[in-house]
Amino acid sequence: MGSLDSNTHEDHTSTTPFKPLDPEEFRSQAHQVVDFIADYYKNIETYPVLSQVQPGYLHTRIPQTAPHHPEPLHAILRDIETHIVPGMTHWLSPSFFAYFPATVSTAGFLGEMLCSCFNIVGFNWLASPAATELEMIVMDWLANMLKLPTTFLFSGSGGGVIQNTTTDAVLVTLIAARDRILESIGANYMSKLVVYGSDQTHSMFTKACKVAGIDPRNIRLIPTTIDTGFSLSPFSLSKVIEADVAAGLVPLYLCATIGTTSTTAVDPIQPLADVAARYGMWVHVDAAYGGSACICPEFRHYFHGIEGVDSLSFSPHKWLLSYLDCCCLWVKNRDLLVKALSNNPEYLRNQPSESNSVVDFKDWQVGTGRKFKSIRLWLILRSHGTANLQAHIRSDIQMAKMFEGLVRSDPRFEIVVRRRFALVCFRLNPDKCSGPEYTNLTNRKLLEWVNSTGRVYMTHTVVGGLYILRFVVGATLTEERHVVAAWKLVKEGADALLKSK
Ligand SMILES: Cc1ncc(COP(=O)(O)O)c(C=O)c1O
């Protein structure tokens, strides 16, 4: 960012040669940035959690053009503090209870530093053998922590790869599924392919389907209800598929979810996979959020039937202390993925790839270049160990349980959906006689009031026509006192709203 007063300075162009990476300068500047970061984490509670700026605020604060001359780091850091930080919503604040968290850790940060330090572009094995091999090892480690069947490991027919986001994971598996089926029935069936999810499946699914060329009319988002906790019913799925088959369409892909975005509903994997198997469909499990909890034995049962699916993804950047972006994808049949996504340009040809003795991860993803993300996960897994990662998940869940108890203790509130992980779905039910619209409006106002204080940030969802407040415990710095303070604030808002009624 251009320093505010820099453009008016006289010409200081030095006669010394430009050295963009000087190790000693790096050492001294990096120390300054580390101090800046440590202070940010230390003082994070002093910032409003939800940014209070208005749209376009930054245009009036920074110069319209990039500086011609170099600017000192201290001036840039000062401008970050003065102009950028106020425009940030502080995802790492201990009072951030919105969406799903973006968890971080010292180990994750150090891994991020090392990833940036080496800046390898590991599209194939030869481009940096350690990056590919470490990724294979770390993905097998994680698969073992999740107790995935050996077919998902490199020692079996499958393997794991780090994608950027769940959208990428769904897109690449959808393309593999699409190509598999079109190869057997013919490319002219493309417009007949049908994909399935529920009305709770994350919106990335529809986006991935569009990118993969699925006719938008063939995307089925099957309705769920509060009676089944918003999980996808295998019976409803089979009815919809039967109707599609009767209409001459071809079932292709099912995206089931462990921990939906709105309410953390869990789709029953085994019976859904059984239905899909009858039609030779590809089943993907999106466990973006809930997957992290499944490293704890008490949550592993959500994976029941996982041996019947074709692929599974979860995102350690959501809940397993990794910085963005890090979405882990496993497939049961790696050959299908590679067949669909591989290319072999002359300029990347090399002996190890051609001898088929190595993995080239460019053939497992959309892009070619890729970062050394496995080093981040490696640091996290080694520095914390499974024991501490499990403790971290359990501690968040314990705090969510405590919040749930506080909500239950106040008869003006209700828990709307069963809590499964660290998300509490609740709402104020001010007057059961006033009707659903009034209740929805009251909760919307309550959320606006709470967030406008800047002291916490929570978000909402609407399911089954109900406007629900979502309270997710997960920011790495959150302690019990932040949860208690958040509840007090919610109660204060309810008092104010109900008094003014
Ligand atoms: C269940 C679920 N799937 C997918 C996503 C989207 O993830 P990504 O941003 O990694 O594509 C989210 C985001 O919260 C999610 O909750």
TrEMBL record:
One of its GO terms (cellular component) is cytoplasm. The modification N6-(pyridoxal phosphate)lysine is found at residue 318. GO terms for molecular function: carboxy-lyase activity; pyridoxal phosphate binding. Its cofactor is pyridoxal 5'-phosphate. Residues 1-24 are annotated as: Disordered. CDD domains: DOPA_deC_like. InterPro entries: Aromatic_deC, PyrdxlP-dep_de-COase, PyrdxlP-dep_Trfase, PyrdxlP-dep_Trfase_major, PyrdxlP-dep_Trfase_small, Pyridoxal-P_BS. It comes from the Eukaryota. Pfam families: Pyridoxal_deC (PF00282). GO terms for biological process: amino acid metabolic process; carboxylic acid metabolic process. Keywords: Decarboxylase, Lyase, Pyridoxal phosphate. Belongs to the group II decarboxylase family. This is Tryptophan decarboxylase TDC2.
